[in-house]
Give the backbone structure.
Amino acid sequence: MQRAQEKQERVTQIEQRQSVSRLSLDTVLNEQDRRDLPFEVKGALQLDKVFLLDNRIETGQVGFHVLVPLETESGVLMINFGWIKANAYRDQLPQIQLNQDTYSFYGISAVPTHNPMVTETATASAPWPRVIQSIDLTLMSAFLDHPLLPVVMQLAPEHQMGFVRNWQPVVMAPEKHYAYALQWFGLALACVIIYFVALRKRRSKTHD
């Protein structure tokens, strides 16, 4: 029930934030909560330093998210250009084709979180594009040998560049949490009923 309430608050925040005009990168960086903010930025892509986020699923197919650093006046920003299908063989990475002459980008801000269940397999000696298991900005900064800004732009679906972009900031809707809560309440009630039925039968048997 608590998770459902948290998700509902998040959905409301997303709707409110994405209804405003695009902000500047500096405005986003100055926010206490940097998530879900529409913003735009200009800069030069580092197309020789592409990251491929592994094991991303789109319509039942396995692929990668393509992340490219962008040099801006405020620092280096990581942009997620969306999903691209993986090749049949793991040692054959997909070809990444992006326009070097594009300098203006817009999308939604995201703040990566650390997942302790994910073990990173990338190393500093791996070739580019470099396959990573999670968006760890500290590790990616080390690979790039310069710091990254603490937000990631999820490129807007209507932007001319990039790949498949079906962003889902809330993976599980509040209604599903309520449904799971109802199932657990039902199981708890069933356990209580079974307990009292068993207790009654035991007392009846003892009396007999």
